[in-house]
Amino acid sequence: MIPAEAVPSPNIWRHPDVYELENLAVDPDGVIEAAMERIRPMAGARVLDIGCGTGFHLPRFARSAARVTGVEPHPALAARARKRVAGLDGVEVLNGVAQRLPVPDSVVEVAHARWAYFFGPGCEPGLAELDRVMRRGGVAFVIDNDATRSTFGRWVRRSLPAYDPAAVERFWTRRGFAREPLTIRWLFDDRRDLEAVVRIEFPPELAEMNSPAMFAVIWAVALLLLWYAWTMRKRGVLR
């Protein structure tokens, strides 16, 4: 059963196979991973992936991390994630939500949430849980869209006219997160895959897909990060 407080994620909840195509197409140049590795390498770390879905990122984290935990509220997706990591040492997938992480206090050294739950105002309960589970010296990474630029950003603004990117940025700044703008690509081998993915993300009339030769989309993202050291001291919850 899906927990009552779980925040729905219609794209992957309803269309996990199509979302797998999206995962395969996102950031073929490894821009996000390189930025995270530069800031806080995962080698030897205890890693937590919040909203891990079908576990797409877990095997990559497991290559260098000491232990990897994926947390996912949707039982069917969690089952897929367990199947994906079967046989990998030090990897587990737990059912749970960001607001009640099934993780002990002060153990996580790298937290990762990619387009999952942490979208700005409203995610305060999940941030409180991060405060609880993060270890001193750890880093929490939140990957979200940067709707102020890029083709993908224009699609976001058109599909969500009430969305205020400046307000979202202020929210994260007030909570001590640094922000690193990144530019990545959506790259598909098959135009039909691109069209299928766009249909699960946007109303079809909003996606500017007039060119039959279009196989790639420029996508601006914001890498948000919080070091759990001086920030925690300032907030009075340093362990």
Question: TL;DR of this structure?
Answer:
By secondary structure, this protein is α/β, with parallel strands linked by helices. It has one domain: Rossmann fold (3-Layer(aba) Sandwich), CATH 3.40.50.150.
Instruction: Tell me the overall shape.
Output: globular
The low-pLDDT segments are 230-239
Largest sheet: 7 strands, mixed
CATH class (first level) name = Alpha Beta
User: What name is given to the CATH topology?
Assistant: Rossmann fold
> Into how many domains do the coordinates divide?
1
Distance between the termini: 34 Å
| Number of β-strand runs | 7
**Strand proportion:** 15-25%
Instruction: Assign the CATH superfamily.
Output: Vaccinia Virus protein VP39
Number of helices: 10
Structural class: alpha/beta
| Widest β-sheet, arrangement of strands | 3-2-1-4-5-7-6
Radius of gyration: 17 Å
Give the rounded overall mean pLDDT: 91
What portion of residues is helical?
Answer: 25-40%
Order of helices and strands: HHHEHEHEEHEHHEHEH
CATH architecture: 3-Layer(aba) Sandwich
What does this structure look like?
The model is unreliable at 230-239 (pLDDT under 50). This protein has one domain (10-149, 163-184, 221-235): Rossmann fold (3-Layer(aba) Sandwich), CATH 3.40.50. By secondary structure, the chain is an alpha/beta fold. The protein contains ten helices and seven strands. The chain is 36% helix and 24% strand. It is globular, with a radius of gyration of 17 Å. The relative contact order is 0.16. The two termini are 34 Å apart. The chain has a seven-stranded mixed beta sheet with strand order 3-2-1-4-5-7-6, sandwiched between helices.
